[in-house]
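2024-03-11 09:14:02 DEBUG pipeline.ingest accepted 1 chain
2024-03-11 09:14:02 DEBUG pipeline.ingest length=210
2024-03-11 09:14:03 DEBUG pipeline.predict start
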Amino acid sequence: MRKLTYFIGATIDGFIAAPDGGYDFYAPFVTEDYTPTLFGEYPETVSTPGRTAVGIADAPNKRFDTVLQGRGSYDAGLAVGLTSPYAHLRQIVFSRTLESSPDPAVEVTAEDPLSVVRRLKQEDGLGIWLCGGADLAGQLLPEIDELIIKQYPVVVGAGIPLFRAGFEPRAFTLTDSQIFERGNVILTYARMSPSTDADAPDALSAQDAG
């Protein structure tokens, strides 16, 4: 079965972007030892124009063949005239307000995201990349199998969080970590089983009681 991976950049305090959606504050941490890892291991997560600019336009998809976005994330590209930001992937945008797709290569749907992802997981292919944003990530949290967090060593205090969702602890296991020159890290987490989620509060209570 295909996996749903939330691959995203974030600050130490858990924000993926500034309140206005900007993320220029990440730029100082994109160093020479970091970009080869991003371009080499995750080439499909670079936008189509970006791939051309850095010389990886023909790089094969390694992990993902489908990308999911919310309206807010997609609008960031539209604002600069980019109607098909990931033309090398199947692109699905979830929106209840965007009546039609601005580009034939982009599928816009108002369907329940959980239903769509469960159907996608049954199809053949590579993994499914959740690109953002916070609202969509919150809705899809029950189906997220893996988190790959590009964590940058900066605290911003406010902004767009990793998830917008109700309080419901879900356990993940750290399976890999990569540390780079300026202190940014790529952290990979695998989703634990639902039974582990259910046991987690009891285990914490027992620790506190001890």
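2024-03-11 09:14:41 DEBUG pipeline.report The mean pLDDT is 92.
2024-03-11 09:14:41 DEBUG pipeline.predict end
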